[in-house]
Amino acid sequence: MSTIEAEQERCLEIGQIPNGFYDGVLIQNKEQSFDVIITVSAHLGVIYLFGVPKQVVFPDLAFLFKVREGMLSASFCFALKRDASGMIGPASRLCYYPFGNVYDNGRICWGNTVFPKMTSIKDAEKLIQSFFDAETNNDLYQNRIVEHPEFKEQSGLLETLKEMEVFPQKWLQENGNQLSNLCVAIRGGK
Q1: Is the dihedral of CA 50, 55, 58, 62 positive or negative?
Q2: What is the rounded (10 degree) CA torsion for 108, 112, 113, 116?
Q3: 139-153, pLDDT tens digit by residue?
Q4: Of 32, 105, 14, residue with least CA distance to 64
Q5: Sign of the CA dihedral 81, 93, 182, 76?
Q6: Where are the domains of the chain?
Q7: Buried b / exposed e across 147-162, counting CB within 10 Å, b at 16+?
Q8: What contacts 113, CB < 8 A, 6 or more positions away?
Q9: Handedness of CA 69, 121, 101, 54 (dihedral sign)
Q10: pTM for this structure?
Q11: For residues 150 and 178, what is the distance between their CA atoms, to the nearest angstrom?
Q12: pLDDT of 67-86, one tens digit each?
């Protein structure tokens, strides 16, 4: 590479990427601005229902965070059904998040959560931790999983899940999109 070619190249610093990074874009004309998709594998965790910790199994999840000039501007969470190969990939189907704090369109309701300035894409990990640490209630719990009389209240679902080792994929309700649709969306597509 000649000196002239090297001088004409312009690099955008990515920095460290968050655990579970799936895809993302840096916004070239705005500092500390990016969109990032992060997946979180199914796991045993805690939901704070009205401040009371309930141990439950979570399904695979996909988060989409939009950060502009260091401030969170939009955030979404979806449950995932893995693709035919059993992997998380472009053909993984997006499903409604089965618990509270998330609207039907996937937008996260943060309540009174206050966020620090996001200085790097790695800071998206803090958003995921804040999501799991947040208290939930029944305001946005819509029973967006299979019909079951015990699941009319979120507490019934949580009680059932505490006895399980894995969140049953068959309980998740698809929303008609795939993980690849989120990737298109962060690139300005529909």
Answers
A1: positive
A2: 120
A3: 888 777 777 778 888
A4: 105
A5: negative
A6: 15-186
A7: eeeebeebbebbeebe
A8: 130, 134
A9: negative
A10: 0.90
A11: 29
A12: 999 999 999 999 999 999 99
